[in-house]
Structures are given as structure tokens and as C-alpha cells.
Amino acid sequence: MGRCWDGAQVHPSMLDIADPRNRSVTRLVLTATASQHPAVLADFRDSVRRVRPDAGADSA
Hints:
Layout lengths: L4 E6 L2 E3 L7 E3 L2 E5 L4 H13 L11
Antiparallel strand pairs: 1-4, 2-3
């Protein structure tokens, strides 16, 4: 197994509609070898841009 490099982290947060004092934070991490990083960074950024709350989900 190759040595991994933690190349990017994003922490998007979303407010709880029912109680705005609460929020959910998601940690998105790209982990790749140094040689893989240039090839996968654009895909990681595209994936992060697509993260959205599920508007149809029940808040239980």
C-alpha cells in the first residue's frame, strides 16, 4: 500500500430547519497518493459542488 497524502478537506454545514440553533457538518476528504493527486483533484472538487441536502427527506 502506498503512502497516502490527505490533499483536501471540505466541511460543508447545513442548518436544521426546525431548529436553526442546530447544524449538521459533513467532512469530505480526498485522500490520494502524491502522484494521484493532480489527476483526481478536479473530480473531487466536482463532487463537493454536487453535495446538497435531500429536499424530500423526512427529518425524523
